[in-house]
Structure formats: structure tokens, C-alpha cells
Design a protein that fits this description.
By secondary structure, this protein is α+β, with helices and mostly antiparallel strands. The protein contains 3 helices and 9 strands, in the order H-H-H-E-E-E-E-E-E-E-E-E. The strands form 2 sheets. Strands 3-4-8-7-6-5 form a 6-stranded antiparallel β-sheet, with no helix packed on it. Strands 2-1-9 form a 3-stranded antiparallel β-sheet, with no helix packed on it. A hairpin with a 6-residue loop joins strand 5 and strand 6. The longest helix has 17 residues. The termini are far apart.
């Protein structure tokens, strides 16, 4: 019985440590302004995604099926982050890109939320959440899939 109790306690500690920070926001990630300041400038959906590290539903977001030519800018700053030239249909229901326009405008941080380890993509200048990057993109285009939330972006159509 003592072994069972000790095993249960050990398992509980491991689960608690492994599942801390289930909000999705890395404790090391620093926002350029306090969250309440972002609340004044972002829509509720943008705030949920970018500040609270939320995720919109697949296939029910603005840009997953957008095939127009243009650029995708940060919903918070207007900085150009992704191009339609680098967008591809990943079959996931979110807008996916093989690379950012300028890798210096994004940063990759570890996201250990929900009991898994992923590479979170944030806007470098603000610390705001954009999405995640995975290694299952088109091999002939670098192999990366930058899986972004439409709510973190605004599309600017090419004239």
C-alpha cells in the first residue's frame, strides 16, 4: 500500500510540474507593454490569441483559405511578417507559411503548455503570440510550417 501511495504522490508531482503554465504563455516571454495596455488596442479575439496565447478553431478563421496575393502584417504593430508567396495549404485549417518575410521580426520560444513541448512563434518586438512552427512543412521549401493564427495577422492585398 505504501508503494502505491508513494507512486501516486510521485506521479502527481510529475503531472503538476509537466502541466504548469497551461495558459500557453511562456513565463519567460516578456510583453513590450502590460496586458491591460494591449487590451485597449486589440480586439477581444486578437487579445485572446496574442496576449493570452489562444488558438482559433481550424477552418473557422479568416485567412486559412485566403489565396490572394499580398502580405500578412502583425495585428498589433502592422509590421510585415509573412508573404502570400510563402503561404501553402497545409491541410490543418490555419494559415501556414514556409518562412517569415524577415526572420529577425519573429522569435521562437519553447512552449510547454498542455503537456507537450512546441516551438512558439512570437513577434520579437512585442512578445505577442502568433502561432507555432513545426518541422513538417514542404521539404523542397525548407521543411518548416509556420502555423499562424489569423487573429494575430491582418492581410494587405497587393495592388
Amino acid at each position: 500500500m505504501k508503494v502505491f501511495i508513494l507512486a501516486t504522490i510521485a506521479l502527481s508531482i510529475l503531472v503538476a510540474l509537466g502541466c504548469q503554465n497551461i495558459s500557453g504563455q511562456d513565463a519567460k516571454r516578456k510583453l513590450s507593454k502590460p496586458a491591460d495596455e494591449w487590451k485597449k488596442t486589440l480586439s477581444p479575439n486578437q487579445y485572446h490569441i496574442m496576449v493570452e496565447s489562444g488558438t482559433e478553431p481550424p477552418y473557422h478563421n479568416e485567412y486559412w483559405n485566403n489565396h490572394e496575393k499580398g502580405v500578412y502584417v502583425s495585428a498589433a504593430t502592422g509590421e510585415v511578417l509573412f508573404s502570400s508567396d510563402d503561404k501553402f495549404d497545409s491541410g490543418t485549417g490555419w494559415p501556414s507559411f514556409v518562412k517569415p518575410v524577415d526572420p529577425k521580426k519573429v522569435a521562437i520560444v519553447t512552449d510547454n503548455s498542455y503537456g507537450m513541448s512546441r516551438d512558439e512563434v512570437i513577434e520579437k518586438s512585442t512578445g505577442l503570440h502568433l502561432g507555432h512552427v513545426f518541422d513538417d512543412g514542404p521539404a523542397d521549401r525548407g521543411g518548416k510550417r509556420y502555423c499562424m493564427n489569423s487573429g494575430a495577422l491582418k492581410f494587405v492585398k497587393k495592388p
